[in-house]
Design a protein that fits this description.
alpha/beta, Metallo-beta-lactamase, Chain A, binds zinc ion
């Protein structure tokens, strides 16, 4: 089971030579979830050797261009490369109209189904769920409706010790119930306790994405204890007034959120282009929450090592 986050873009409003606008790829057991799709995302996917055709779900936080201007290009490329598999798009409702208009103007009929799932701006909802993960939206506070995302791996089953399967000749049909905690009755009628047959299941991973937003106290309980929190830190603390006026966060806001929610690791991003030295933002954030990292383009975070 892999659970890895790759940063494809970490800048705010405008791209720079080494910093693209927001986009991230979450790989959950080789299923690819794209979070935001700023300009140049398809190039960033190529640079990071990620096959874009493997993306089946795209989550767009809000309709400021630095979070979706790469989307039409990416969808068009998937179409030109002959995709037939469905693509699911989760976003605020205006985005469907924007995409439809662009494809109408170029007389493009997509070769694959594009399913649009509107995100409610003021209500938390499960957006996607399967046997291993549940994904819901978080309500953020920004200058326009904005949503965060919470990815929660479901409880993992225990691992059965291979040698015990042979030793007790456990039938395949019973493996599933043992993985879920059942004891086993041997041929001789002896009860073998589950703890003798299994190793402890690893704790499930969780990922919270919060951008663009101010500090939202109401989300602290929802994201409590997540493995990794990505929180925007557009400005350093001396520009707190500017952050408040524009619906953004400072380094201290991001760190405060991480500290209050007792997350394991914090990654900051969405940096204002005014900053050339990101180490200054990192140091300021670490003054409140030590386990903080920068979301530089191309960096990867493996949740198994957190
Ligand atoms: Zn932004
Ligand atoms: Zn924004």
């Amino acid at each position: 089971m892999s659970f890895k986050l790759t940063i494809l873009g970490c800048n705010s409003a405008i791209p720079t030579i080494d910093k693209s606008p927001t986009a991230q790829l979450l790989n959950v057991n080789e299923r690819f979830f794209l979070i935001d799709c700023g300009e140049g995302t398809q190039i960033q996917l190529m640079k990071n050797k990620i096959k874009s055709q493997r993306i089946n779900h795209i989550f767009i936080s809000h309709l400021h261009g630095d979070h979706y201007f790469g989307l039409i290009g990416l969808i068009n490329t998937l179409h030109l490369l002959g995709r037939t598999k469905e693509l699911n798009l989760y976003a605020h409702k205006g985005l469907k109209q924007i995409i439809d208009l662009q494809f109408q103007a170029s007389n493009t009929e997509l070769k694959f189904p594009l399913f649009f799932h509107p995100i409610p701006p003021d209500e938390e909802k499960v957006l996607f769920e399967d046997e291993s993960i549940v994904i819901s939206n978080l309500i953020l506070k920004h200058s326009i409706p904005s949503s965060g995302f919470l990815f929660k791996e479901k409880k993992k089953t225990k691992n059965i010790i291979k040698a015990k399967i042979e030793e007790y000749e456990i039938p395949i049909a019973q493996l599933s119930s043992i993985k879920n905690g059942a004891d086993f009755k041997s041929k001789e009628g002896k009860i073998i306790k589950n703890k003798e047959l299994t190793t402890i299941a690893k704790s499930p991973h969780s990922y919270a994405f919060c951008s663009d937003t101010t500090l939202v106290e109401e989300n602290i309980a929802t994201i409590k204890g997540v493995t990794l929190l990505y929180h925007e830190a557009t400005f350093m603390k001396d520009l707190v007034e500017k952050a408040r006026q524009t619906g953004h966060s400072t380094t201290i806001d991001a760190a405060t959120m991480a500290k209050k929610a007792k997350v394991k690791k914090l990654v900051i991003g969405h940096f204002s282009s005014r900053y050339n030295d990101l180490e200054e933002l990192l140091a300021e954030t670490k003054s409140v929450f030590t386990n903080t990292y920068l979301a530089t383009d191309g960096s990867t975070f493996d949740f198994d090592t957190i």
